[in-house]
Amino acid sequence: xxxxxxxxxxxxxxxxxxxxxxxxxxxxxxxxxxxxxxxxxxxxxxxxxxxxxxxxxxxxxxxxxxxxxxxxxxxxxxxxxxxxxxxxxxxxxxxxxxxxxxxxxxxxxxxxxxxxxxxxxxxxxxxxxxxxxxxxxxxxxxxxxxxxxxxxxxxxxxxxxxxxxxxxxxxxxxxxxxxxxxxxxxxxxxxxxxxxxxxxxxxxxxxxxxxxxxxxxxxxxxxxxxxxxxxxxx
Length: 234
Prior knowledge:
Blueprint: H1 6-9, H2 11-29, H3 32-49, H4 53-62, E1 76-80, H5 84-96, E2 101-105, H6 119-129, E3 137-140, H7 146-154, E4 163-168, H8 169-181, E5 187-191, H9 201-207, H10 210-233
Parallel strand pairs: 1-2, 1-4, 2-3, 4-5
Helix pairs in contact: 2-3, 4-8, 4-10, 8-10
């Protein structure tokens, strides 16, 4: 989903804005329904912040990709822009398959373009810092979202049986939906798992993090919304 809409699609951002706005209006007007509305939104925000809702949601998105397959004869390594862990995974496969080529797919989703701070530029710097042979990388840029990424990939005419798609685990379900729609039957490798499990109560207490809970819920919400939108428009 485009980063242009990301701030608006973060439910916790919206909740904070609603809480701030209603509290100001309430102190001015003293309307009881505003206080009730304010209270409901505060309770929802606390529920998201102090419960593992986001983590459970991410587990749902990532669960099918926990057990990674072993692959042979990989010639094309397709990396969707995003997490640095996707880049590290691409180098792992490139080192294993010496004759393979990396295709880094992504552009700049921001409204104000910055050629020094877009995804391909950041990826180039990281590949360079890791002393990877830049001649083995093809940058497929200027796309703004996942659907545009796959349309760019489609034009490469890569052999599916020799190609592997790398993206974050939470993003793989939607990526495969889009790929299937475009008849792209790539092998897949999920990186950057965001959900976690702690069996011990003490470990759960030690790993408790309000900020992470909010972030995980935002990530899950945006991904589920993007999946629903894709199903509706296709």
